[in-house]
Amino acid sequence: MPKSSSSKTEKPIEELTYEEALAELESIVSALEGDASRNQLEESIKLFERGQALAERCSVLLEAAELKVKKVAGDVLIPFEEESE
């Protein structure tokens, strides 16, 4: 289960990379979905709040990446298509 938001070793959300934020968010979702009956209400609320902040961080980082791609691609994004076999 992810560390409590009161943990001193927990990295501030604004310092997380996209990959770190997403991994922690997935861990929180698993903890909340998995065995919610074991979580105390306060701990569940802290996890949910951190999860919301992590989701926002991921969104901000994705938007920044999209802006960089648009800048390089001349504001024209080409939709990604998977190769068919």
Protein model, in words:
Helix 1 (18-34) runs antiparallel to helix 2. This protein is mostly helical. The chain contains two helices and no strands. It is elongated, with a radius of gyration of 17 Å. It has one domain. It has helices spanning 18-34, 41-73.
For the structure shown, list the relevant keywords.
85 residues; mainly alpha; 2 helices; 0% strand; disordered N terminus
Secondary structure elements and pairings:
Layout: H1 18-34, H2 41-73
Helix pairs in contact: 1-2
Annotation field: number of helices? 2
User: Quaternary status of these chains?
Assistant: single chain
- The helix-strand sequence is HH
Which radius of gyration do the C-alpha atoms yield?
17 Å
**Helix proportion of residues, in percent?**
55-70%
N-to-C span: 39 Å
User: Which percent band covers the strand fraction?
Assistant: under 5%
Strand tally, please? 0
- So what's the overall shape? elongated
Q: State the secondary-structure class.
A: mainly alpha
Q: How many independent structural domains?
A: 1
Largest sheet, strands/sense/barrel: none
Mean pLDDT: 83
State the low-pLDDT regions, or none: 3-8
